[in-house]
Structures are given as C-alpha cells and as structure tokens.
C-alpha cells in the first residue's frame, strides 16, 4: 500500500480474509465474493483485471457484516445452486451444495418425470434445478411460509421457469389442494431435520429460519409427518427423493418401510449419506 492512497483491491481482500478467518472456514473466498459485489463485477473478472485498482468504499461495510457471521449469500442476495443463480433472503434456507445430491439423484432415477412436487420448497432450489434439467417436466412447490413462496416465485421468474412451476401455501398434509392437482411422478423434499438441541454455527443459527432447520429431539418429526402422505401424492410406481442428515439414513429408512416403501441411499460429494430414494 502506498502512502496515503487507498489500499489496492488485492491488499483489501488479504486484510479482510485475515479479519474473517476466526469466524469463517471460507474467509478468502468470502472476501473475494464481497469485493466482487462491491465492485459490481463477477469474481473472475475481478481476479483477472481489477486486483491493482483501489479498494472501493462499499467494501468495508460488507466485511463488517460478514465478520458478524451474516452469510455471504444474504449479503449478496444470491447463491449459486446446480449452476443456477438463486435469489436468497432470510425467509428461506440458503441452498447448499449438499442438496445438489438430491437433484442429481432425482435426475438419475427419474430423468423424465412429467409432474414434480417439491414439498417445503423454500427458495425453490430443488424444484427449479430439476425443471431446468428436464424441459419436459412441470412442477408444484409447496411451503408453509408465504414469504418463502414469494422467494420461490421470484426465482422461477428469474430462471425463466415460471410457466412450468406453480407455488402453493400448504403444510405437509397438503390438505385442500392435493386432490385437485392430482398425483406426481416425482416428489422432492428437503425437510427440516436438525435435532432441536443441536449446536449450529452462528451463520446458520442466527440468520436462517429455524422453521426450515429443526425437527424435534431426533430431527425426525417432519419425516414422520411427510412420509405417510407420499402414497397419496405419488402415481403408482412414482418415486420420492428426500434429503437426510448424514446420521439419519437407518431411522428415515425405517419410517419409509413402515409406509410400504423400498429405499435406496445416495451419498454426497463427501461420501456421507444425503439422499434417500423411496419407491
Ligand atoms: N444441512 C443443513 C444444515 O446442517 C440442514 C438442512 C435441513 O434441516 N434441511 O444446516
């Protein structure tokens, strides 16, 4: 840094990464993403051409927010998922890399489903990523939260999928509307599955909706509510792909077997159980 001048983008990123490293496992990446946002350019363009420019004034407040554990996705208002750019607000879970396993599994076991239901759709990530890859499909996303449904609708429009995606306010029982809409080839669901007393990082605990995370003492309450509904929602031979916590495979499989389903497990990139396929 030269005398009196603002630090360069490169120096400011380095300093921010140091500041964020006690509270973030991805401090350098966070700093780069926040800087690209402050500059109003993509991260790759910043890294290639702008590292010697002066730090823009908008950067420091973003780093201060991140240092208080606010998720980068909330600060940017966006999160990439399955190669698509999703709008994100505090009203939904931030789409996670782990959940891409659900979309991959669905595309593998039901590549040409024509009617898809995403229960507890949140940002719409699972449904919209599936619809994007399967142009022959149309789908419905449900959520108990009207604020979440507005985020999902925004995402459907922004990804050019609004003509194939509808959103409905509903609880797990899908009371009222399920019989009107008929049955589905494929049900996707990433329910809340965290144990009530689990210790979560402050990024998650303080900034993401508890209603999308916690599910009773064993994290299984929502599976117990959802799985018995699947029979009436699926066509004969239809499939459901549920996200599960890494330790939950045997318990969720047992709930599924009680409802008469056969199950198959799929691992995430870290080779942990992540998706349970019900047939
Ligand atoms: N995998 C998420 C977490 O650990 C939990 C997601 C969920 O409950 N559906 O933060």
Automatic annotation (TrEMBL):
Catalytic activity: L-glutaminyl-[peptide chain release factor] + S-adenosyl-L-methionine = N(5)-methyl-L-glutaminyl-[peptide chain release factor] + S-adenosyl-L-homocysteine + H(+)
Residue span, Release factor glutamine methyltransferase N-terminal domain: 11-77
Binding site for substrate: 190-193
E.C. numbers: 2.1.1.297
Key words of the record: Methyltransferase, S-adenosyl-L-methionine, Transferase
Binding site for S-adenosyl-L-methionine: 120-124, 143, 172, 190
Limits of the Methyltransferase small domain: 110-198
One record GO biological process: methylation
Domain of life of the organism encoding this protein: Bacteria
Database matches in Pfam families: MTS (PF05175), PrmC_N (PF17827)
Single GO molecular function: peptide chain release factor N(5)-glutamine methyltransferase activity
Residue ranges of coiled coil: none
Top EC group: transferase
InterPro entries linked: DNA_methylase_N6_adenine_CS (IPR002052), HemK-like (IPR004556), N5-glutamine_MTase (IPR050320), PrmC_N (IPR040758), RF_methyltr_PrmC (IPR019874), SAM-dependent_MTases_sf (IPR029063), Small_mtfrase_dom (IPR007848)
Stated role: Methylates the class 1 translation termination release factors RF1/PrfA and RF2/PrfB on the glutamine residue of the universally conserved GGQ motif.
NCBIfam families membership: hemK_fam, RF_mod_PrmC
Family statement drawn from the similarity comment of this UniProt entry: Belongs to the protein N5-glutamine methyltransferase family. PrmC subfamily.
Name of the protein described by the UniProt record: Release factor glutamine methyltransferase
